[in-house]
Amino acid sequence: MGEYHLLQVRKSKPVPHTTNSKHNLLVYANEVKYLGSVVPGWVWVSDVTYVWIGDRWAYLALIMDQGSRRIVGSKLSHSLHRSLCIDALTMALKDNPAPGFHHSDRGVQYCSYDYIDILKAHQITPSMAASIAGNPVVPVFQACKRLVSSAPSHTGKVPA
């Protein structure tokens, strides 16, 4: 068809969903809503996004210090299991002092008993937003997606 200069329909990849907010787990209030600007180390924000690597989707969990905008924890996997977020949180806590608040969406990964138990064991107050609007980690995700998708030497291999 291209030889006749006709329009061709592009096949787009199906886009995965990263948040399952329809669950029976406890959802926490938005505790950071009224804090305003925060000092580094006081609030961590977390979210999961997806990136196309090789021939399939992978999920990227990031935890960012809201005050310094520094990524303190991350995990890349082909699975959206709660261990993705738990591993990112464990990485963040290993190298950094625990913050006062941890802010995320209401996804099942962040509401899981295992995740909340880790937060409470480190005396971190969970905070959850009803929507992604105004989430400070979104620009970071967009930059990461551009970086990963433009990397010419990426092998497409993601750790399990």
What does this protein look like?
Helix content is 25%, strand content 23%. It contains four helices and five strands; from the N terminus they run E-E-E-H-E-H-H-E-H. Strands 3-2-1-4-5 form a five-stranded mixed β-sheet. Strand 1 (43-53) and strand 2 (56-65) form a beta hairpin.
Primary descriptors:
alpha/beta; Nucleotidyltransferase, domain 5; 160 residues; five-stranded mixed beta sheet; 5 strands; 4 helices; 25% helix; globular
Q: Tally the helices: what do you get? A: 4
Low-confidence stretches: none
* Total separate domains: 1
User: How would you state the average pLDDT, rounded?
Assistant: 79
| Shape, per Cα inertia axes | globular
State the order of secondary-structure elements, H for helix, E for strand.
Answer: EEEHEHHEH
Distance between the termini: 41 Å
SSE layout and pairing:
Blueprint (H helix, E strand, L loop, with lengths): L42 E11 L2 E10 L4 E8 L4 H14 L5 E4 L3 H4 L1 H9 L3 E4 L9 H13 L10
Parallel strand pairs: 1-4, 4-5
Antiparallel strand pairs: 1-2, 2-3
In short:
The protein has 160 residues and is of the alpha/beta class. The protein has helices at 82-95, 108-111, 113-121, 138-150; strands at 43-53, 56-65, 70-77, 101-104, 125-128.
